[in-house]
Protein 1
Amino acid sequence: MQKMESKGPRFEIGDFCVKLGSVTINQNFKGVLVEVEYRPCVVPGSAWELIREFLQGFLGSTVSNQAPQYLQNRMNDIYQPLDTIQQYLEHFGQYRKATGVI
């Protein structure tokens, strides 16, 4: 069984919470995940532009103008912890495909 995890520090910057996670598969480094939460808002569509601008401030043009695929169909819904879990699962799946781990 392959063990995949994301571990790292958590920062609070004003109204934002930023989590940086080093992604490993069986203790082999595969990449970094950046999670950003804008705490005053629970509706992604109302906060996406602000989150995007915040991310572009330190990641530059690598940040897409469009919300992540998973959120595009949920922009007007109240964000739930299950939404975070689903996005992590999608990213972990992408890392598995990129490294050939099934």
Note: The mean pLDDT is 92.
Protein 2
Amino acid sequence: MGKTMKKYIEESKKIWNICGPAFFVFLCQYSLGAITQTFLGRVGTLELAAFSIENSLIANFAFGIMLGLGSALETLCGQAFGAGQQHMLGIYMQRSWVILNSISCLLIFLYIFATPILKLIKQDPEIAEASGKIARLMIPQLFAYAMNFPLAKFLQAQSRVMVMAAISGIVVVLHVFFSWLVILRLRWGMVGGAVVLDCSWWLIVIAQFVYVVSGRCGGTWTGFSTKAFANLWGYLKLSLVSAVMLCLEVWYYAAVLMIAGFLRNAKISIDALSISLTIVSWVNMVALGFYTGVSVRVSNELGAGRPHAAKFAVVVAVSSSFAVGLVISFILLMLRKQYPVLFTSSKEVQEYVSTLTLPLVLSIIINNIQPVLSGVAVGAGWQALVACVNIGSYYLVGVPFGLLLGCKLHKGIKGIWYGMLFGTAVQTLILLLLTYRTNWNKEATDAKERLEYWRGNNHVNGAEETEAREMTPQRVAETNS
């Protein structure tokens, strides 16, 4: 027992050295939108509802796609770094930039036509008009996402998360000051909030890029290369599999907010739910920190051919994240009458938020396990398999169950949320079972084959050979079955 505990503590230190700063990065970057939302909540209920819809539906949709496309880089960079193929990390990152910025050019239309799209899905017309105005101003944020996620995965694979934490911390302090100045002091309202948010995201991108090209990343960055354009179609297909997996997760709770727009007194419902989901998302930053930690540890250990170390990292990460979730949930239950005051001055919204505390804490407990298991999937390269699990548990179980309770049985926001929680619980149980039954020796072998393929593809010119060896979604699924 003593030897096992010592091993547990050692692995915990390795994971916390990654997930601690990573948690801070996620918290700061998520807080940029949440801070803007909080300041707009002091302006009025329409401003709060409009920004909540834009941030949760439009920006969140784009965020999910960018994050998902970038997670292919997380698998390849993590395993390449563990295998000692450091020179490939910069090439992978540049290839990801090409893909993400190309997709961003298509997503611009979502921002331009946000108002008619929101009206089409039966959102409140007044809220839809205001949200569309904000969305058009947030187009620069879309391209910041496209640049940021490859940079983040590149740095995370090398455990260079402290520099990311420092940059994010400085930016969030500046964001608070300028949001207060522009939104409240200068009274620029929604327009000012959108401009400040765009600038904050691009400041993060520029600072991280300067760090990467300054020579501090050693052999992982060797300059721009035409190899970034090799086999873009194959890399796009791998990225799309990753995007499907993570988009289904990121968009899931946005569906709760959209369904809330169908209820009576939509402004109050959306305001209360958006505040609760903001808290869930803040706490999820802890789980995402563990997601990053376990993803890096699993991918590094599999790339280095150490399957048992990868398996033990999973156990440590899941147990640690679950414990943190329990502590936070207990604190929120004790302060259920006090915390809503921090987000809105409306007494009616405050009371509504307080009544949502129970589904809030249940979400936190479950969500502190689920993202960590998704991190295992990304580190091992199981994206296609998990995408299928997400479709079934979220959209064939959770969403219909939420609609049934919330709309048909008239249970309101609580009914919608409990239904969606059921879908999340189903997905978490399936991922736990898959992780428990994993053959980690086989995963290490698969990681070696995957790296040999992608490294070799940079020198392959024959279209037939490329097509024959591409890691298609079907092949990924077969590998993990």
Note: The chain is about 85% helix and 0% strand.
Protein 3
Amino acid sequence: MLEASLRKTMLSSSGPTLDAALTDLGWAEMLTEVPELAIPLYFRLLGETGSHASILVDVVLNATGNTIGDTVELPLPYAGNAWVVWDRISPESLDPTLGGLPLRREEEGYPIRVAEARVAVGWWLVGSARAMLALARQHALDRTQFGKPIAAFQAVRHRLAETLVAIEGAEATLTLPGANNPDLTALLAKAAAGKAALTAAKHCQQVLGGIGFTEEHALQHHVKRVLVLDGLLGSSRELTRRAGAGLRARGSVPRLAQL
């Protein structure tokens, strides 16, 4: 019931309007009381619907003991040692290079706790990846070539299958319990989600062909979004290297899951 209501709301609104609607639907209470349920649900749906809301800021605020909904500007690390701020005050001033999100580039920032936010962005990336896969799958069923749907061709099936495997693997990483090492678990989960979303963007673009590049098709919106989300709080490439360097320095690998 809640998921259906959230999906409908996100499909009909975005930005500040969606912020207000999510507040009415009890976002703050869910984040405070059951973050392990709220974060995967809300952020996955943001990805699947292609909408955006400033609830990522709330995740950071809640993790650091601040008031949810505050308009304080928190610097968020971005790929390439850069910094961005999610602008809650003037969200209409969008940087066209930042995926349609109300992010503003900053010259410098300061360290903040980002483990929970990385998991949230990871679910956002997974939701976007699933949206791209759904678009490519439907196109493969509808588009005919040589008298049959292109979904019948092995090359197309392989790309769709590889995308699904990447998404499922990322989801499995995002659901790992982080009690033993929450920072490392969140870092690896964000890296896996970013890689899965980039894999989805590449393969789904190949399946859709030229139509996927056009402004009229929904795929390009998701591709732009995941390119930015992958860079937010550290790109998949940067986080993977950071994790590797940390493990080499430590000389051992902590157990992240009971198999």
Note: Residues 61 and 68 are 6 Å apart (CA to CA).
